[in-house]
Amino acid sequence: MRILVTNGDGINAPGLKVIEAIAAEIAGPGGEVWTVAPAFEQSGVAHKISYTHPMMIAKLGERRYAAEGSPADCVLAGIFDVLDGARPDLVLSGVNRGNNSAENTLYSGTIGGAMEAALQGLKAIALSQYIGPRSQDMDGGMFEPAVAHGVSVVRALIDKGLWEDEDYRVFYNVNFPPVPADEVKGMKVAAQGFRKNTSFGVEPHISPSGRKFLWIKGGPQNVATKPGTDAAADLDGWVSITPMRCDLTAHDTLDLLRERLE
């Protein structure tokens, strides 16, 4: 199996090492793991592509590259330059430091990498590690749940996931819970949730030169969403698995809107 790996936290992020190890085990001794990751952190860039300016790409080692672009850029670079059209069997994006549950999904560069892979007709899985109050105290580090359960989750999705060949094909968003590995309850298929009163905002600061700058500021992350949704499952100790598509149409409103407007 040929696997292409990218992430949103950058080429030097510890979560990238985790996903490379997962990919190596999934690919097997006769497989290939190719890494094309952003040269610098690209958190919050969503599905951005750098079509208005070129990006530099550098080979750092055997099957390992850094590109000055977003995760979606890295997927494009991997498919059409690094692999020279030899399409991967699977694209893995992550493991992100922090959850990409609920509304975070819409901002996530990690999700953007998987989204671009899906648009290219490839199997794609985004993986993120929820960080909570207990994460710093885990013996295996904050990525302990992803390290312990990542291979089994990815294998389960490869073997039993729905991989239909639609125009907007399904890709998967996986979030590991913020609990020690031995307390993970299993996998839970969950819808994307919504955290109320935790939307992004800005916090102004005055620099030493007297200029005003704005920091983007998020809300509390350890807030459960509705039962049956991703963050609720994660905070209850489950690995949440959310099937997603790039189609943004609100299909549930189409008939009513036609009645009103046509």
UniProtKB/TrEMBL annotation:
Its cofactor is a divalent metal cation. It is found in: Cytoplasm. Residues 3-196 form the Survival protein SurE-like phosphatase/nucleotidase domain. Its EC number is 3.1.3.5. One of its GO terms (molecular function) is 3'-nucleotidase activity. It is an enzyme of class 3 (hydrolase). Its main location: cytoplasm. SUPFAM superfamilies: SurE-like. It catalyses: a ribonucleoside 5'-phosphate + H2O = a ribonucleoside + phosphate. Binds 1 divalent metal cation per subunit. NCBIfam families: PRK00346.1-4 (NF001490), PRK13931.1 (NF010541), surE (TIGR00087). Nucleotidase that shows phosphatase activity on nucleoside 5'-monophosphates. This is 5'-nucleotidase SurE. It comes from Pararhodobacter zhoushanensis.
